[in-house]
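Quick review question:
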């Protein structure tokens, strides 16, 4: 190499006097901590916003689902009310009190109200009014209980849901019901004896029969047929006796303890 100071030297960049950003940040702990805190704040804000959005979405979903359930319930009530109306219109013809005035033993609107009341939270029980004297035999009359039961079948509205000829209806047909096996929704099969019939009338829902719609049988028959006001359960026994007369398997196990007299 020449010792001449004027000899051309290659273009060598002068040594840098600046510090790289990484080194600068590394060399300043306070700045690095500020960057980390800022990133954590952004991530925390995003997660909080995401949780709020999810909560609002869940609330909106259940709000919509509640309205859907209410609409389905109203449609179900309307469907059952229509079924009761059609069945009563078709079955009520032999039970006119005054055909000219179109007065019958069963009020269609009342039967609808009883069904609607079962689907309305907090609704008071719909009690049946006193039936006309022409449709109810006095309990002191010396007639068989099953005859009184046949009258009650019409006047209490049983005719709206239960047939007596074996045809399907809203509820089980009373034809060949007593003494026959009944399959429950829990998979068990029981015989329709007196205890079964009494429970189905007074405590609907306690025994759920497979294929029968739940929640349609009114709970108002319990206080109307049993309890302190009806210690002898005359009307209840009359109805069960009438059911027994419709079955070819009626026996002592299916009949009320009160004789049919």
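Suggested answer, residue by residue:
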């Amino acid at each position: 190499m020449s010792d001449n100071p004027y000899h051309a030297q290659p273009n060598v960049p002068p040594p840098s006097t600046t510090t790289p950003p990484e080194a600068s940040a590394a060399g300043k702990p306070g700045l690095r901590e500020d960057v980390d805190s800022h990133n954590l704040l952004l991530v925390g804000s995003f997660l909080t916003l995401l949780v709020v959005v999810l909560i609002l979405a869940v609330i909106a979903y259940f709000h919509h689902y509640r309205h859907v359930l209410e609409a389905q319930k109203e449609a179900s009530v309307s469907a059952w009310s229509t079924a009761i109306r059609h069945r009563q219109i078709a079955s009520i013809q032999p039970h006119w009190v005054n055909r000219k005035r179109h007065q019958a033993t069963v009020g269609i609107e009342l039967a609808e109200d009883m069904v609607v009341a079962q689907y309305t939270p907090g609704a008071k029980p719909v009690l049946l009014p006193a039936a006309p004297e022409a449709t109810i035999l006095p309990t002191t009359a010396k007639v068989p209980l099953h005859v009184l039961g046949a009258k009650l079948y019409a006047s209490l509205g049983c005719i709206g849901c239960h047939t007596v000829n074996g045809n399907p209806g809203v509820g089980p047909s009373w034809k060949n019901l007593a003494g026959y096996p009944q399959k429950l929704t829990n998979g068990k099969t029981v015989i329709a004896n007196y205890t079964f019939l009494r429970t189905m009338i007074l405590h609907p829902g306690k025994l759920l029969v497979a294929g029968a719609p739940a929640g349609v049988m009114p709970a108002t028959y319990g206080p109307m047929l049993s309890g302190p006001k009806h210690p002898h359960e005359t009307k209840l026994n009359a109805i069960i006796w009438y059911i027994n007369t419709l079955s070819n398997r009626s026996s002592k196990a299916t009949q009320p303890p009160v004789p049919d007299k």
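Why it works: The beta strands are 96-98, 103-104, 181-183, 189-191. The CA atoms of residues 81 and 112 lie 5 Å apart.
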